[in-house]
Amino acid sequence: MAAVAFIGLGNMGFPMAGHLLAAGHDVVVWNRTRHKAEQWQTQYGGKLADSPALAAQSADIVLTCVGRDEDLLEVLHGESGILKGLKPQALLIDHSTVSAEVSRQIAQQLLSSQQQFVDAPVSGGQQGAINGQLSIFCGGSPEAVARAQPILAAYAKAQAHVGPVGAGQLAKMVNQICVAGVIQGVAEGMHFAEAAGLDVAQVMSLVGQGAGASWQLINRHQTMIRDEYDHGFAVDWMRKDLDIVEAEARRLGVQLPLTPVINDFYRDVQRMGGGRWDTSSLLKRLQEFATNTGKPD
Ligand code: NAP
Prior knowledge:
The protein has 297 residues and is an alpha/beta fold.
């Protein structure tokens, strides 16, 4: 069992750190908003650190799950950041969805040659984190990924080494491209079913057992019918991810005809006040346009 530190106890990190403890690891956590770390300790046990540096000092493996590129850089080399305490032979594993570029920057410029880095973004949502059923895309050297994988097993349904540092983030971008199109498809199908006077629940249940099935349709159509949009992955995070995808596509010179359109649709949802709604709220956008005959201001 390993001495691990977990930085960032949000919707994802909170249960993930709990799984590490349950797997028998010696876990110390840090969270910017301290009361969440205290809640975590009340729920699971484990230890709290007063700063990322102090958490890193007591660990051989340090995991992060924060927000954007700048948040990751802040917990790494801000005052009392992880780098101030990271051991000379430590392994750093990042679960945030960030750019491939910042992952490479961390590995090449911020860590010493003895310290290892794995970018390990996840898919499976908050429910996947709670159930320990995440898909994990690992980028790094073969040695670093081999060292990371037994730790990640605490909450992985599937994990694979997909290439060098940054490749994990590139694979997660593929995931987000696929998901964005699927959600819009489900929303349009439901919007059409409603306009056609069909029993939306009945039809979507049947579609979900045929060739139109998807995780989004099966897990979200009932909550979408109930106009409930508080089920995990937030629109603000999706906007972040699709901006990252668009920038990487420009860098690669690859055409993605649909993804920027869906990113614009999510901008509309943000204008509607739905930044913290979950990503299935594309249906709400269609319904809003139908009643207002135009885009929200
Ligand atoms: P969240 O609930 O908003 O939590 C974000 C966490 O990061 C909180 O612990 C927050 O601390 C911390 N944080 C953010 N900026 C920070 C900074 N500058 N310094 C220190 N701590 C900071 O987000 P989440 O849903 O757990 O997502 C975390 C990451 O996983 C994101 O990159 C997201 O895109 C990715 N992800 C999320 C999902 C999902 O379904 N939610 C799925 C796959 C991937 P505070 O508590 O102080 O705010």
